[in-house]
Structures are given as C-alpha cells and as structure tokens.
Amino acid sequence: MQIRTPYLIFLGDAHDQLAAKTGVAIAEWRRELCVGQLRLPGCQADAGLPDLTLEEAAAAGAKTFLIGTTTRGGRINEAWQQLMLRALELGLDIASGLHDRVADLPAVREAASLFHRAIHDVRTPHGPFPVGTGLRRPGKRVLTVGTDCSIGKMYTALALEREMKAAGMAATFRATGQTGILIAGSGIPLDAVVADFIAGAVETLCPANDPDHWDVIEGQATVLHPSYAGVTVGLVMGAQPDAMVMVHDPTRPTMRGLGDRPVPGIAETIEAHEACARVTNPRAKVVGISLNTSRLDEAAAMAEIARTADRFGLPTIDPARTGCGPIVSVLKGM
Q: In whole angstroms, what is the distance from residue 232 CA to residue 225 CA?
C-alpha cells in the first residue's frame, strides 16, 4: 500500500482530542507529511496544523484526504460524503482507518474511478492469517498494555522505539491499529481480523528474529475492557511478550465509552496482563509504567510519576515529559 503524501488531515466534528487521535498522532509523528487540517463547525480537536479548505489544501499540494477522526464503532458519517467527492474531484486520494470502508460507498467509489484516484481503507486486513500456535520463537518483544483504550499505548511504543534505536538497540515498531499503520507505513489492523486468527496475525506481524532484536508492539485496549478485551487477549497471546509496559492516565475516572465504569487500578491490570501473557511466555512481566499526564501541570505530573514509581517499584515515565530512558535501560539489560 503506497499512500501519496502530503496529507490533508480531516478532523470532522471531533468532540475532543481523543476522538481525533489518528489525525493528531500523524501530525505529531509525521508532521513533515501534512499540509494542514480540515475541521467542521463545532470541532473541539486540533492537530496543530493550518486550517485549510479542500481547495486551499489542493493548491498547497495535498495528495491525500486522510480521515483523522475516530467514531464509536468506526462508522463513516454520511455528512462527510460530499467532502470526499469534492476531494476526489480536486485530485486527492482518500485514506481512512475506520471500520466502515470508504470503498463501499457507491458514489465515492464511482468518483474515484472517474477521476482515477485511489481509496485506501487501511483497516482492511490483508490475510489470510494462520491460527496462533503459542510456539516460542527467537527475538525479543515488548508490548505496551494499558488500563483503558485510547490512553497512550501507541505513543509509548513509538517513543520506546525511537529511544531504543538511539541507544544502539535493534528495534522495530509493529503497528496493530489504523493510526500506527498510517505512521509506520505497514502493520495489521487487529480489530478487523476474525477472532480465531488474531493471535496468528500477531505471530505473523512479529515473526522469529535475531536474538538481540526487539519488536516494539503497539498495544490495543486492555484485557479488562468489557467491549474490546477480545482483541487484547489475542494480541497478548500472539505477542508472547518478554516485557510489557503498563500505560495509565491518572486523571481518567471512567473507562472510555462505558459511562460510569471506573478505570481499573494499575495493580489489578498488571496482574491480569501478566496472567494472560504467561500462557504463551511464562517469563512475561511488566517492566515499567508509562503515565499519560497530559492533563496535569508539570509539578503535579512529576509528583505523580514519583509516587507511582515508589508505590510499584517499577521505572515510571511519561514519554512526552521525561522520555523513556529508565525503561529502555531495563530492556537493554534483558
């Protein structure tokens, strides 16, 4: 899959930054590939890019209209269709990571054919994938896990890979979600894989490798999330992680999309993920904690990081504030 760049990031009418996490993350990790953002009235998200119309973006050289907002269930809003048609008319391709396929919209598909433009539905897995075996394979793997979904697992994984490489380690980021795939240029959208093959898909994504090579695997949701645990369990089993990094937002009271259900504690979430991971790797363990302190000021964030490290006896970081050095040091010694 070759997606033309630069991108115009479409944020729609996202009600907060998390609802636009795809666009925001691409702007942060691949800003050089973005000409601007397009926001609808009422949009509460901001990727920090210039606000452009479709016409302005085309004139600035945009090649792909990239849907950077997420919706519950990955649904395409019907109101976006006219924008997609206009983008195709102006010469832009379309890329989307939603569950609903842009290519399944008859008018958009026909317009893409008429204007000789491409549609990239990156959440469509390119199988077939095998059933997972649980057999050990050489190479090392670190998996980011968390107390909830949309909490910073991808960000932590990308930051880990960057700092591991800077420390001279052989490391490869393995994308398992649509945003990670758009950033990395490859990967497998696990939540679109048939359940029987999720673990096998992860084994394919992270195959046998050199003994000192680390796959840095992007986590999905949590094994304690009633809605999405099915994907997480398959991911943990297939990853056979040697190490896991627990991601947590200390300011989030309830689980994403579940009303008043409290976010589970770090201790019980570590216990649950280690129990799951040890089915296929008996030595799997959580080696560090990554806190998402974006809603705290500097003093409060650093105090929370120190308290968490002291409470759990694990190196604790916020990759955006402190970097990942303490956790990278642990991985380097494994």
A: 9
User: In terms of C-beta distances under 8 Å and separation of at least 24 residues, what long-range contacts does 51-60 make, across chains too?
Assistant: 52/8, 54/8, 54/83, 54/86, 54/87, 54/90, 54/92, 55/90, 57/8, 57/92, 58/90, 58/91, 58/92, 60/35, 60/36
Q: Give the H or E element holding residue 270.
A: helix 266-277
d(CA 123, CA 117): 19
According to CATH, what is the number of the domain 140-332?
Answer: 3.40.50.300
| pTM, entire model | 0.86
Residues 34-79: tens digit of each pLDDT: 999 999 999 999 999 999 999 999 999 999 999 999 877 678 988 8
Instruction: Report the side by side order of strands in the sheet with 7-12.
Output: 34-39, 7-12, 64-67, 93-96, 119-121
Nearest to 158 by CA among 138, 144, 178: 144
8 Å CB contact between 317 and 291 = yes
For domain 7-121, give the fold: Rossmann fold (3.40.50)
Among 266, 192, 180, CA closest to 216: 180
The structural domains of the chain, with segments of one domain joined by +, span 7-121, 140-332
In this chain, the answer to whether the domains covering 7-121 and 140-332 adopt an identical fold is: yes
Q: Which residues, in sequence order, are CB contacts of 72 under 8 Å at separation 6+?
A: 257
